[in-house]
Automatic annotation (TrEMBL), chain A:
This is Alkylhydroperoxidase/carboxymuconolactone decarboxylase family protein. One of its GO terms (molecular function) is peroxiredoxin activity. It comes from Belliella pelovolcani. SUPFAM superfamilies: AhpD-like. NCBIfam families: ahpD_dom, perox_w_seleSAM. Keywords: Oxidoreductase, Peroxidase. Residues 24-100 form the Carboxymuconolactone decarboxylase-like domain. Gene3D superfamilies: AhpD-like (1.20.1290.10). It comes from the Bacteria.
UniProtKB/TrEMBL annotation, chain B:
InterPro entries: Aldolase_TIM, ArsS-like_C, rSAM, rSAM_ArsS-like, rSAM_sf. This is Radical SAM/Cys-rich domain-containing protein. It comes from the Bacteria. Transmembrane segments: none annotated. Residues 211-345 form the Arsenosugar biosynthesis radical SAM protein ArsS-like C-terminal domain. GO terms for molecular function: catalytic activity; iron-sulfur cluster binding; metal ion binding. It holds the Pfam family Radical_SAM. NCBIfam families: rSAM_SeCys (TIGR04167). Residues 52-191 form the Radical SAM core domain. The keyword Iron-sulfur applies. The lineage of its organism: Bacteria, Pseudomonadati, Bacteroidota, Cytophagia, Cytophagales.
Amino acid sequence: MKTYYNPEDLKKFGKIGEFQKSMADKFFDYYGEVFQEGALTAREKSLIALAVAHAIQCPYCIDAYTVDTMEKGCDEEQMMEAVHVAAAIRGGASLVHSTQMMNKVKEISM
Amino acid sequence: MKSLKAQQHPLSKIEYELEVLDTPIKGISFADKLANSNLFPLSPTQIDIFQINMGKMCNQVCKHCHVDAGPDRKEIMTRETMQLILEVIKKGGIKTVDLTGGAPEMNPEFRWFIEEIRKISSEVHIIVRCNLTIILANPKYHDLPEFYKKHHIEVVSSLPYFTAVKTDSQRGDGVFDKSIKALKMLNEVGYGAEGTGLQLNLVYNPAGAFLPASQEGLELEFKKRLKNSYDITFNALYTITNLPISRFLEYLLRSENYDSYMEKLLDAYNPVAAANVMCRNTISVGWDGYLYDCDFNQMLELKVASPTSQHIADWNKKSLLEREIIVKQHCFGCTAGAGSSCGGATA
């Protein structure tokens, strides 16, 4: 069955330079540096990436950062808490806009 | 849970296991990778370490065990074989004796053997790979921490994680709680405490088809969690990669993770780790006295390629140092990422 997402395509990510090499090279250099140990540990960055992967609902990123967080020594509880952070921000982003709705309601109501 | 051998599982037949492992990954063999790193044929650098399998008997049946150890395994080393090992130790040159199993303590000659090694030398470093739960398994083992201390033994113990769920999923129900109690008993006699010189090192290996975390970072995390939650201290954490043999191979095949795991190991091949593999300065001695390049080759029954010195009774250091180390696809486990050995990362 053909689908838009194929798990095998994740392995081809590094080959996107085939159509535009210089930009891909710059992107992967940058990407590599972002995930180095820094003010945040590589482990913390991996958990952030896992949460973001869920927020942007990227199946490739979810697979990649599920494995990566486990290989950084995280357990299921920590990983799920990271996803809840994404969910809280996503849910909160909707709910905080309700203030606009409330403003408007009050504006046009007697 | 029974051992693969007791289940008469196809993977308990070495021929079948080797057949699975003989298939190149993406057309590449471990020997090819070594050749690219100018390391093939792989040769020994020295024989500093004796890793001795005291037997396959164990009180636990861990899901990833490369020995396929368990209570139903009866193969244990005899005093006669230990005598032959002592004769070799007397000749000098062996710096470390690393006792493993199974649970090495279940061998009735375990204490005698250590006492005899100490009669020969107080300098030889002795390691016992203690599964922790054995200390609580029977009153006759409760004094093991004192025994280890008396003979100045380094204790190396597996603890896959600092939570019960992950530890028990790999090592069996209730293992985490018993391990914590055993670690406290070791701490009480001075193990893992600064200034005592009594080394207590833990081993982390992944509970699944993925690579271990960075040793340094995970050690800090383990130290923090075990101290805060249980007031337990230890010296170092060794991260070890699961090698695709025996029960872990069975898991990989059953869960359909074999191909992707092998590709992961291949992609993570590190030539620095390859140069530092432990088989280059270790000889593994089987429960029956046969000699192997490492504990994994021992379980695959791949005896050293030194025809005149394949058994401890025929010990010939010169011949062993001139041998070619036998490599197969499972060896990718020791060279992936930061490398892996019984002493943790190698690169």
